[in-house]
Amino acid sequence: MNSKNLTYRLFQKLADNTISKEEFDKLMELIKVRETNNISDAAWAAQWKKIKSSKYFIRERHDLDSKVLFQKILNKIEPLENLQKAKKKKILAPKVYWTGIAACFLIIAGIFTFYKKNTVPQPGLTNPIEQHLDANAITLQLDNGNIETISESGERKITSPTGGLLASQQGNTLEYKGNKAQEKLVYNTLNIPFGKQFELLLSDGTQVTLNSGSSLRYPVNFIAGKDRKVYLKGEAFFDVAKDASHPFIVNADQINIRVLGTQFNLSFYPEDEDISTVLVEGSVALYKEGADMKKNTTTQLVPGQQAAFNKSKNEMSVNQVDTHNHTAWKDGYLLFKASPFYRIRSKLERHFNISIEDKTQLLHNQVYTATFRNETIEEILEAFKEDTPFQYKREGSKITILDNNNANLKKDAYEK
């Protein structure tokens, strides 16, 4: 996994209080070596924007001093931002600007360390950070901040603080029972690490299949008179239970997908260029978060269409697609159709929970069409080598595609 993708993942774990000591140390290492360009300015800009908007903010912080320190960080960075906006001819050098940002991240690191050492959990509330959760485990974050580990082969019941049954787990499926007497929205967040998938049955009967590296925040019980709104990061396939009186809305960062009852695939990984929605059955309407749906601000899809919202260009495009290419993952398939290697690499990293460093100059945009199901990562790479020869080495969970074979690659390409 490249540094940018790794940074996104570690910041999200920091925000969710699921980061391990080893992962926290790695994040701090990335911050300290900012000037070596291991992380792009764009990536830092995105992280800081989310920090300021509290989308990346350590939850359940009870210590007043840490809150004050965080406010001091905001106060310190504000002059830098204002200076950059004010100088139209002499713009503040990016290196200076982001060095200041990096320094502030280090202060956040200090807050985090202080919080870990000094925060005493409230009675009846487990401190999520102190649980030392396995970074490769499926986790469920409850409304009170408690984080529980989900074993894929286990059976268990999830209960409320008062002892009421919220959900039951049977193997790879977590099913919510629903409580019609509930009058307040209470949220849980299910986090799926790289290398795993999981099934979720919401209280209204909506079925959700979550792909690797994904998280879904959803109400334990939907309430009459309110929209059924959930929040996705990653990729999921939704089979939405029909309820004409209560629209089902999935939020993916800047985009909302609104349905009454349908089947669709939604992919929103922070490191990807697009937020992709593929409609299999029914109909959906896409619109920007905060837009007025009574105005002409929605994009309508019919079955077989894909809407791709480009986050950097702020543009929506609609195309006809083969839906199977976008949903095969939920049946265990890795399906690539005329896909460039850089996109394939991201999917392989998430699927196998590995990192792939490509040191060649030829593979990045090399296009492949292939289907895999039970193959190992080594078998998949060997299949790609049949088309484009290359050498690689594996050290633990890291695979490096070597650049010492470039001369042979160019020679083969010339002979063809």
From TrEMBL:
Residues 192-284 form the FecR protein domain. InterPro entries: FecR, FecR_C, Ferrdict_sens_TM. The keyword Zinc does not apply. It holds the Pfam family FecR. Keywords: Membrane, Transmembrane, Transmembrane helix. One of its GO terms (molecular function) is sigma factor antagonist activity. The keyword Membrane applies. Residues 333-401 form the Protein FecR C-terminal domain. The chain crosses the membrane at residues 96-115. This is DUF4974 domain-containing protein.
